[in-house]
Amino acid sequence: MIRQPFKARTPEELISLLSAVAMAILAALIIMVLYYGREIIIPIALAVLLSFVLAPLVRLVQRLRIPRSLAVVSVVVIAFAFIFAMGSLLATQLAQLAGDLPRYQSTISEKIQSFRETTAGRGTLERASSMLKDLSKELDKPKEAANSLGTTAAPKATPPKPVPVEVLQPDPGALESLQTLISPLLHPLATTGIIVIFVIFILLQREDLRNRLIRLAGSDDLQRTTAALDDAASRLSRLFLIQLLVNGGFGIIIGMGLWLIGVPSAILWGILAAVLRFVPYIGAVIAAAFPLALAVAVDPTWTMLLWTIALFVVVEPVVGHVLEPMVYGHSTGLSPVAVVASATFWTALWGPIGLVLATPLTVCLVVLGRHVERLEFLDVMFGDRPALSPPEIFYQRMLAGDPTEASAKAEEFLKERSLSSYYDEVALRGLQLAQADADRGALDPDRLTKIRDAVQEFANNISEQDERQPPKVNPTTDVEATSAIEGVAEDAPYESLRVLRKEDLPAEWQGEHPVLCVAGRNPIDEAAAIMLAQLTGAHGLSARVEAAEALSTANIFRLETAGVAIVCLVYMDASSPAHMRYSVRRLRRKLPKATIILGCWMKDIDPAALESLREGAKADLAAATLGGALKLCIEATGVDSLGTGAEGQISKITAA
Question: If you write DSSP's letter for every residue of 183-241 in order, what string do you get?
């Protein structure tokens, strides 16, 4: 056996390994502290969440010129008085329900008897009874076998009759009676006291706690981090308060509906529904199980059960799919996998209270991850924002040959922003990533062709999109599209470029394809030219695309130029200015009257470099983006750039 030589690790590998081990040890320690210290940590967690809910109320009271300490104490006292009142009402309802349960036994017996009398029920019960008898016979077989072998048990002696003994406890004293009464209440009262103290402390010292968190985060930019954490705190406060109001409203509607239906202890089930709705996905189902079971026990018929099912089936979807998106806007910031994982994790650590607190606690962690650099991994792990940037997602889908999914995401983007902005901020940057991979030799010719074909199909898929000001009445809820939209301002330079009508164009622009888009060197350039052609077509200027081979000496003379008024020569890299110069020269000979635009769509190209490339190539105009090239094409038509478009849209065309 030949032993492999030992390969020594580099210092960088050792540091990375030690860092991973340290992170694993730290995570294990944190989980141990959360588990074994839950008696203290759970009240603190509840206090933090309550402070987020009560902070807007404290600020509201402070606006009435009331001192902060008095505002905090008064709001906390009122809040806990309300909580105690709800707890007392809950206890009363539970006691009443426990006293009424024996009365429901007869109803359940009647329903079982009714089920037994039906044909299906009789058959089911008879089969169950027969099965139980067979099992009983199987269990008795060893005893029967022993008797068949002739073994007889010796007669048992009659045991002596036990003497009855009565143990009498001495009458408890007043102190023991008081201790028996108070001892079950000590733990809840202590926990409540800890929560009250921490809530008051957090509300009084929230700026100081924020500053300490900034210090722990080790941020160098205090101004930005302070503003970010203040914004995060206000967002969390608003989110939790709205969530409390929505879930409370859900509980009120359920309680009133159950009361009208006639289900006993309707207030109890309404409170339970409001609390359990904080549990994602299964909370409403668990809340519905109890009143459904009670409806079966109370009503001799099945009417109450059917009405209760209808109540939950109607109310929960309306609240979850209509009301919540309206008041929350987009999502709470958690991915579905994170919601399930967090619910499992916190329930395993803290039991039922962990299940209720799972979503609010995870939302807090995700918000911290978005605003504190050292905690960014929390946002990556649990947040609903895509792990890849929109350009990276576009490039990945072109690589995978999945333009259909990319088209669906683009349509979501176009609900709030223009096609020009999508091409510039997402698609073009995705092609720049492809060009970077091509420059370092990571893409072979087959891959380049695959990307070009995927972009062609993508452009065909969205070719029916109307490039006019998108209405804001139906914003997108897709997280990938939202991530891309956040990077484009509503007043971006190319958001409102004009859509032209063919009858408004000069005669030389009314040909079948007045715009000719030509790829510079490779299939990525051709993919970019395809996008420009689709974009100009969406603005009323029909375009044709030619591959890079059309610029060769042998093919340039066969190039179809009828009706062409402007040529866009597209390059995704500036590695060969000579190639640009010769290409422009050939196009000039073939189309002496056409305007030639040099599209240099490299990453982060500055205006001086762009102008230098234009002068070197002897082109008429140059553009660094798709939107810039489109604007130059519209301006080249000579149509009044500040006029009103076909749909009454005023263009916002600025200098290139």
Answer: HHHHHHHHHHHHHHHHHHHHHHSHHHHHHHHHHHHT-S-HHHHHHHHHHHHHHHHHHHH
DSSP per residue, 350-369: HTHHHHHHHHHHHHHHHHHH
Residue owning tokens 């294990």: 28
pLDDT of the residue at 534: 92
DSSP 647: T
Q: Which residue has the tokens 């210290």?
A: 37
d(CA 605, CA 602): 6
The DSSP secondary structure of 444-480, one letter per residue, reads -HHHHHHHHHHHHHHHHHTTT---SPPPSSS----HH
Residue keyed to tokens 């028996």? 180
* Closest of 7, 24, 28, 6 to residue 16, by C-alpha: 24
Tokens of 95: 């006691």
The CA distance from 47 to 424, in Å, is 47
- Give the DSSP letter string of 384-408: SS-SS-HHHHHHHHHHTT-HHHHHH
3-class DSSP state for residue 21?
helix
Q: Which residues of the chain have pLDDT under 70?
A: 1-9, 105-108, 110-185, 216-225, 227-229, 231-232, 280-281, 325-333, 465-474, 477, 640-656
Which pLDDT does position 643 carry in this prediction?
A: 40
3-state secondary structure of 78: helix
**What is the model's pLDDT at position 149?**
45
Cβ(491)–Cβ(416) below 8 Å? no
* C-alpha–C-alpha distance, residues 230 and 276, integer Å: 30
DSSP 322: I
Cα–Cα distance list, 559 to 375, 547, 595 (Å): 57, 11, 16
Residues 6+ apart with CB under 8 A from 193: none
The span from the CA of 540 to the CA of 645, in Å, is: 11
Structure tokens at 77: 């006292």
Please identify which residue in the block is written with the tokens 């005893």.
143
Burial class (CB in 10 A: 0-12, 13-18, 19+), 133: exposed
HEC string of 550-607 equals HHCCCCHHHCCCCCCCEEEEEECCCCCHHHHHHHHHHHHHHCCCCEEEEEECCCCCCH
pTM over 0.70: no
Max Cα–Cα distance, the chain, nearest Å: 127
